[in-house]
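Aim 2, interim progress: modelling of the pyridoxal-5'-phosphate-bound target.
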Amino acid sequence: MKQFKDFRSDTVTRPHEAMRQAMMQAPVGDDVYGDDSAMNHFQCFAAELLGHEASLFLPSGTQSNLVALLTHCQRGDEYIVGAEAHTYLYEGGGAAALGGIQPQPLGFGHNGELDLAQVQSSIKEDDFHFARTRLLCLENSQHGRVQSMAYMQAARKLAHDNALRIHLDGARMANAALRLNVDLKAIASCFDTVSLCLSKGLGAPIGSLLFGSEAFIAEARRWRKVTGGGMRQVGMLAAAGKLALTDGLNRLHEDHEHAAALAQMLSNIDGLTVREGWTQTNMVWLDLQTPCAEALKAAAVQRGILLSASGTTCRLVVHRDIKADDLPALARFFQDFFSA
Ligand SMILES: *Cc1c(COP(=O)(O)O)cnc(C)c1O
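Predicted structure of the complex, ligand included:
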């Protein structure tokens, strides 16, 4: 099969050789019985890394967020969330379908933050006409944009002052931490619970972690089983996850450097605009002058390049399997496409 240069997402990385070796050699046991020592160690290691009491491994980020919502909220409860947030928009309405949990979506502002005054005013009074507002859910990074520590701290204070819990959809929080030049703990300390994807820029093939207190994770383990996420010999995935949170974390800066370089290379091409201020992590967003997404993707395939584009928007994502050498060819493709 032809090897494409794949800029569609950072989910496309394949486990590298050292990761495959570690997976092959991992000790395994039945994790539903709590017998998988590699997974038990990994969950403790990860909890320590984020400064939370406990963590739980789940097959996907979607399930991680779903289990968080099911654990935080009862039927008829409400959570406040971004109208374009993954949890609300891209997870099939799971919280409503499976938990009877009502979302209160609010529009995102600059950098994917929710306006805290608007959050405050959308918290419902204790009155049986209203759903019970229980949870505030943020996303960082959001479409590659990063909210500040000061913002997250203010959101935490608002939530706690109003007896809400606060959850972070931190699928790409490692990218956010890198951008903010803080460790994962600093971000995690602003939230009661956090979900983090191992299978994006960090490079594992499968998996997400959910973080919280011992009591929260015990209850989340129950919901994981209920939603079909109790798995058996997962030591192999723990081995991959461990490398994601060590080696994968340590090389993540390369992706940010590559995205910045790419944005620079694309900055003077007629027919597209690099979205100003959006190249903060491993994504570059382009606005196309005309709605040529379909033609663009088709032409890219001819050059061995895969792109994600729709209408007048194109998102380029760099990751471990994209090297610095691959960037000029991508820039040349755009140049050629728009000068043809
Ligand atoms: C990818 C992603 C998820 C879901 O992860 P999956 O593993 O694809 O289910 C959740 N939230 C955000 C912000 C994401 O980017």
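The radius of gyration is 21 Å. Residues 60-62, 65, 86, 139, 169, 171-172, 197, 199, 208 surround pyridoxal-5'-phosphate (CB under 6 Å).
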